[in-house]
Amino acid sequence: MKSEKKEELNNCELLNPSCDDVVSPAHYNDTTSSLNCQSLENELKKKWIPKKLLSERLVLCYYRLDLEKKAERVVNCGTFLEFGRVEELGGVPPGAPGRCSGDAPTSTNFKLHKANFCRDRLCPMCSWRRSYKIFGQVSEIMNLIGSDYDFLFLTLTVPNCTADELVRTLNSMSKAWLNLVRHKRIKSILKGFFKALEITYNKSADTYHPHFHAVLAVPKRYFKSELYIHRDEWLVMWQKAMNDYSITQVDVRKARSKKDLKFADTAVSSLSSAVAEIAKYAVKSSDYLFDDESLTDKVVSVLVPALAGRRLCSFGGCFLKAHQVLQLDDAEDGDLIHIDGELRSDIAVQIYRYGWSCGTYKLVEIRQKEKNSD
Ligand SMILES: [Zn+2]
Prior knowledge:
Radius of gyration: 24 Å
Mean pLDDT: 83
Strand order of the largest sheet: 6-3-5-4-7
Largest sheet: 5 strands, antiparallel
Order of helices and strands: HHHHEEHEHHEEHEHHEHEE
Bound molecules: zinc ion
Number of helices: 11
Shape: flat
Number of domains: 2
Number of strands: 9
Low-confidence stretches: 10-33
């Protein structure tokens, strides 16, 4: 069965060549274009192809678990990618003020313009895009509110649990989070938060380790007043919220920008990156895709129902308000293509279309982008 499915994976409907065929771009008459897209080819090789290959391993696992619908969705994830090429003159894109029509470009950037993503929770390709998107959103929010508050990093853990206990543990943690942020002591300091769920898998003990990473916005006077909450108090409040006094680990620390930054703007942007760092993967693919197929199948069959319909990250208070002011879309279910407002379609000069075939991305077409066209 595995070899049949593997063969299916290699048949790319977009291109339909045999594996030895060289795919010639249909409208490929600009010889300089091939030289110009070297940076894009490198990015595909370094970032996109490894993710797509991991997604294919997930597809095989879904087939083995008879999760055919999921397998078919993921197999079609990222089978075509279109990138817009934007030429800039010293950072000035075409058509922008200060750019003369005869000026030669000094840099070429490629931005994803169109793609077909499956949005499966465990798809490594989509998880990667989602983590980028959340990172971008948190950075934007921090740039807006970063100088108004101080910020805490809070990590809330529970004892490792077995596969059978995972869903129940995740449900208890969601409820406990609500209890925690409604606690009188915390309510008095909490101005907003960003929270993300992460689950890791312990192979040797065959247990799961779910935990929350959160960033809390607190008043500027938090560290020098009666508002300050000691780490041991955080632990007691989390134990109480979880109704589990065996919990021993709570980590809380001040979010800091690099010490040597004297200018407020730079300090805020350094702080944003530190905060956005927590917007990582809910589950890293290395925690469920193994060389051992039976182990992969076992862990994936536990994670699929545990993650189904579950919110993996959320914004509250001033973070949520900033999210609305910035008109950001849903961090989990929103657009996975334009993840940081990256391509204005009217400034791309050329579109490069790639198709997935035989374990790699091949250039299918290069076309000129007409102004304001889609
Ligand atoms: Zn996907």
